[in-house]
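Fill in residues.
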């Protein structure tokens, strides 16, 4: 599985794909130089429960750390993961 991170203007997304098939997407908005807002997560039904959402979140967290950004998780899935996972709370706004 490959996780791509793409940004355009004030929006961005992490996309999980495998063999040219899209498995899921997590979208975010760039609110400022220091802040991004994760607003939606979607995983194809056949891949739910296989950590696709978590892997996309980790890719966005990795980018946030590199760019010294903080994250507001408006998406219910991302919010739940931030509550559950201690190793990503350093980028939580």
């Amino acid at each position: 599985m490959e996780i791509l991170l793409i940004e355009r203007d004030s929006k961005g997304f992490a996309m999980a794909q495998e063999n040219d098939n899209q498995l899921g997407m997590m979208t975010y908005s760039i609110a400022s130089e220091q802040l991004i807002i994760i607003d939606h997560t979607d995983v194809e039904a056949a891949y739910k429960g296989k950590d696709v959402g978590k892997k996309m979140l980790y890719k966005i967290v990795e980018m946030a750390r590199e760019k010294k950004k903080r994250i507001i998780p408006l998406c219910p899935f991302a919010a739940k993961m931030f509550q559950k996972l201690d190793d990503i709370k350093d980028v939580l706004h």
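The beta strands are 2-8, 11-18, 21-32, 35-43, 70-73.
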